[in-house]
Design goal:
The protein is of the alpha/beta class. It has 2 domains: 121 residues, Alpha-Beta Complex (Aldehyde Oxidoreductase, domain 3); 147 residues, Aldolase class I (TIM Barrel). 43% of the residues lie in helices and 19% in strands. It contains 11 helices and 12 strands. α1 packs across α3, α4 crosses α5 and α7 packs parallel to α8. The longest helix is centred in the middle third of the chain and has 31 residues. 41% of the residues are buried. The mean pLDDT is 96.
Length: 285
């Protein structure tokens, strides 16, 4: 129900501040200014319109706080929790203008991240009977990668690399330009520090044999059918981590996991997740 890490506060504030600036524009929330007295006070709840997994409560809280520190945001659940239709995620109280003005930015973040967490949980449940872990990719919304990868963790998934600088991932185009699997691996080993992992992509058993001869930390088995994946995993024999990738769906992930791979990367976790339907309701009286 809880995650292993949280997003850094300065990162949250920078992104949320930019989102608020986009929404407020040049003149601020003119609808709220026109219709709501400056002294008005309000109470509200954020509630789920559908079932799912929560992610992004801290981001939503930040939106209200940045608009007006007098707004109190009280979570009714935790990131990573499973919720049902109608469940309350948070209670909000304070200046009415601030609550109304921050509403959309808060819900955009919370709904988007909860949608990613919810989809990830569906994938993770499909392979719970295996040792495999489902992980994300770099196919994320620009400038929101850390947020979306956090949401994957909330849904029970694992994180792949965050950027180009935190691991060496030698893909087919690198191999082509470098002049082959062996050359690419030897160059990577000469370049990498002792703390840097090296992963290499292959799509044939012949390439895999080259990788095993040279050595790597992880081999990415790209677009292989289950029978070929099973043969590849047997060939690896536990000498390095085996990751499957390429077109994995909710319908196919179980068969992929049952081949014995350690990791399954799925771009859809972040690039195709549907926003979870959430709403903010003002409590009257």
């Amino acid at each position: 129900m809880t995650t292993l890490w949280t997003l850094p506060s300065p990162l949250i504030e920078d992104v949320v501040r930019a989102a608020l600036a986009e929404d407020f524009g040049r003149a601020g929330d003119i609808t709220t200014q026109a219709t709501i007295p400056e002294t008005a006070h309000a109470r509200a709840v954020i509630a789920a319109r559908e079932a799912g997994i929560v992610a992004g409560l801290g981001v939503a809280a930040c939106a209200f706080r940045l608009v007006d520190p007098a707004v109190t945001f009280s979570p009714a659940t935790l990131d990573g929790a499973r919720i049902g239709e109608g469940d309350v995620l948070a209670r909000i109280e304070g200046p009415a203008r601030a609550i109304l003005s921050a509403e959309r930015v808060a819900l955009n973040f919370l709904g988007r991240l909860s949608g990613i967490a919810s989809l990830t949980a569906r994938y993770a449940e499909k392979i719970a009977h295996t040792k495999a872990k489902v992980c994300d990719t770099r196919k994320t919304t620009p400038l929101l990668r850390a947020f979306e990868k956090y949401a994957v963790r909330c849904g029970g998934g694992a994180n792949h690399r965050f950027g180009l600088d935190d691991a060496l991932l030698i893909k087919d185009n690198h191999i082509a330009v470098a002049g082959g699997v062996g050359r690419a691996l030897r160059a990577a080993k000469a370049f990498a520090s002792h703390l840097t992992k090296i992963e290499i992509e292959v799509d044939t058993l012949e390439q895999l044999e080259e990788v095993l001869a040279e050595g790597a930390d992880i081999v990415l088995l790209d677009n292989m059918a289950p029978d070929l994946l099973r043969a590849a995993v047997a060939l690896v024999g536990g000498r390095m981590l085996a990751e499957a990738s390429g077109g994995v769906t909710l319908e196919t992930i179980a068969a992929v996991a049952e081949t014995g791979v350690d990791l399954i990367s799925v771009g859809a976790l972040t690039h195709s997740a549907k926003t979870l339907d959430l709403g903010l309701d003002i409590e009257i009286g």
